[in-house]
């Protein structure tokens, strides 16, 4: 067998205790040597090709899906399906995201059995089928099956597969590459919000769906063929578990899950509601689509920037700060935004920080649980987001129906506040783990180190350091 490359493998040699019956003063030279391999990502190379592929997949999954906000505004304004109510339309948009998250374990199993390429191609076919058949919808339940379930399933096969692959190619540039790839959702949303708004006005909603279908088909097909999972350098890789529900009993996983649930409730409601909010203050359909497009432009600009800063200043600290900033923007700018220029300012600024969870979840989870547990833990986190994603826009629209947009705006801001608080506690947990391991290595008292809740104090939330 060919020796592993020194660029990919660090060899660590350690002495073990002598076997039973052996002399206690046996010399180290005679002790058996155990060689272990630590997998070192190349931190570049073909990884940048994979980054571009994941970027394009984000453009044609999340980016295309964000155009639903413009399509939704059209359906609400023109009563296309007279028997449908606002709540049903809101659930359709949430259903596409929740379905993507629900099939996380299935996607993990498909990758293990069919391989990366076949899994990605399956998702590509489902996305095209969903968008193309949605163009022929004549009843609202047709949209539940196409735009909701079928598109969400296809997005799960493509997006979840691509997201789990990318961190394996990078180490010190992991957050930057993930943020760069995640910016595709923003640029895709920018382009497809503008395209959808313009094409709906000129050619109709049915043609809009068909244009989205063929654009997604071509791009996702090429990306699926180019995107490669990195071969495992370890000669005997550990078997990968599909799901471990016991992870949800661990404090760190609970905190990440609550961060995801709360910010997803805010993020989905914000990105789908903004075009309709524009109409509620007297703006046109096209102006509403421009507001949605600027929100997505903010996503495109903010995600790689946040990723780059996270690598430098902390992969938990920076997402915590950006999540809190999003709540502040909702309260300070969105609530008084009753004019077109102020709404565009909010859309751009909020877009840079509102999608922090999806651009940083892979690096955060990698730091918390490690690369080997990333796929299964990510799938588990996705399952916890299924119900919130389904009802996020429905909750916001029901608030709008009762008391106008003010209640929904405050609610969305509170969701981001809750997410930031969870990351603040997770940050202190990370410091605790670092102190516990350092104490165990230095003094051999790792087992006697106090538990987290004994260690935790309010001042621990404000420790200075890069985590």
TrEMBL record:
Major location (coarse) = membrane
Q: How does it sit in the membrane?
A: Multi-pass membrane protein
**InterPro entries documented for this protein:** MFS, MFS_dom, MFS_trans_sf, Proton-linked_MCT
Subcellular location(s): the record lists: Membrane
Please name the GO terms that the record assigns under molecular function: transmembrane transporter activity
- Record keyword Kinase present: no
- Coiled-coil region: none
Where in this chain does the record put each Major facilitator superfamily (MFS) profile domain?
Answer: 250-467
For this UniProt record, the keywords arranged alphabetically read as follows:
Membrane, Transmembrane, Transmembrane helix
Tell me if Transmembrane is a UniProt keyword of this record. yes
Listed GO cellular component terms?
membrane
Sequence intervals crossing the membrane:
89-107, 119-138, 144-166, 178-195, 207-227, 248-270, 290-309, 316-337, 343-365, 377-400, 406-426
Q: Which PROSITE patterns match?
A: MFS
Q: Which family does it belong to?
A: Belongs to the major facilitator superfamily. Monocarboxylate porter (TC 2.A.1.13) family.
- What is the name listed in the Swiss-Prot or TrEMBL entry for this protein? MFS general substrate transporter
Q: Which organism is it from?
A: Aspergillus ibericus CBS 121593
């Amino acid at each position: 067998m060919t020796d592993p490359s020194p660029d990919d493998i660090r060899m660590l040699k350690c002495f073990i205790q002598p076997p039973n019956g052996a002399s206690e003063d046996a010399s180290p030279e005679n002790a058996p040597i155990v060689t272990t391999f630590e997998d070192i990502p190349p931190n570049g190379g073909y990884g940048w090709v994979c980054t571009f592929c994941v970027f394009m997949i984000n453009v044609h999954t999340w980016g295309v899906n964000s155009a639903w906000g413009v399509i939704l505004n059209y359906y609400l304004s023109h009563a296309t399906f007279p028997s449908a109510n606002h709540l049903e339309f809101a659930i359709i948009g949430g259903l596409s995201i929740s379905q993507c998250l629900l099939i996380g374990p299935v996607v993990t199993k498909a990758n293990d059995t069919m391989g990366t390429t076949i899994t990605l191609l399956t998702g590509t076919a489902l996305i095209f089928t969903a968008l193309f058949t949605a163009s022929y919808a004549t009843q609202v339940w047709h949209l539940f099956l196409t735009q909701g379930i079928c598109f969400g399933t296809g997005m799960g096969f493509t997006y979840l597969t691509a997201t789990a692959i990318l961190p394996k190619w990078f180490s010190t540039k992991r957050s930057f590459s993930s943020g760069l790839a995640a910016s595709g959702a923003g640029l895709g949303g920018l382009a497809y919000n503008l395209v959808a708004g313009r094409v709906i006005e000129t050619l109709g909603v049915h043609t809009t769906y068909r244009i989205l279908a063929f654009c997604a088909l071509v791009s996702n097909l090429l990306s699926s063929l180019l995107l490669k999972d990195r071969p495992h350098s370890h000669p005997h890789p550990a078997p990968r578990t599909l799901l471990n529900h016991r992870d949800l009993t661990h404090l760190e996983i609970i905190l990440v899950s609550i961060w995801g649930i709360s910010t997803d409730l805010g993020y989905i409601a914000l990105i789908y509601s903004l075009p309709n909010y524009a109409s509620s203050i007297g703006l046109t359909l096209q102006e509403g689509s421009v507001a949605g497009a600027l929100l997505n432009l903010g996503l495109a600009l903010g995600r790689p920037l946040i990723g780059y800063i996270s690598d430098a200043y902390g992969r938990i600290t920076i997402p915590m700060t950006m999540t809190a900033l999003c709540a502040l923007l909702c309260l300070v700018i969105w609530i008084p935004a009753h004019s077109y220029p102020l709404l565009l300012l909010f859309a751009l600024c909020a877009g840079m920080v509102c999608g922090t969870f999806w651009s940083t979840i892979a690096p955060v989870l990698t730091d918390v649980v490690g690369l080997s547990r990333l796929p299964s833990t990510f799938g588990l986190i996705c399952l916890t987001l299924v119900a919130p994603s389904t009802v996020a826009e429905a909750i916001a629209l029901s608030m709008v129906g009762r008391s106008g947009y003010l209640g929904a705006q405050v609610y969305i801001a509170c969701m981001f506040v809750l997410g930031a608080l969870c990351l603040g506690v997770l940050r202190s947990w990370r410091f605790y783990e670092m102190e516990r391991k350092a104490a165990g290595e230095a003094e051999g008292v790792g087992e006697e180190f106090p538990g987290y809740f004994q260690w935790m104090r309010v001042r621990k939330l404000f420790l200075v350091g890069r985590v």
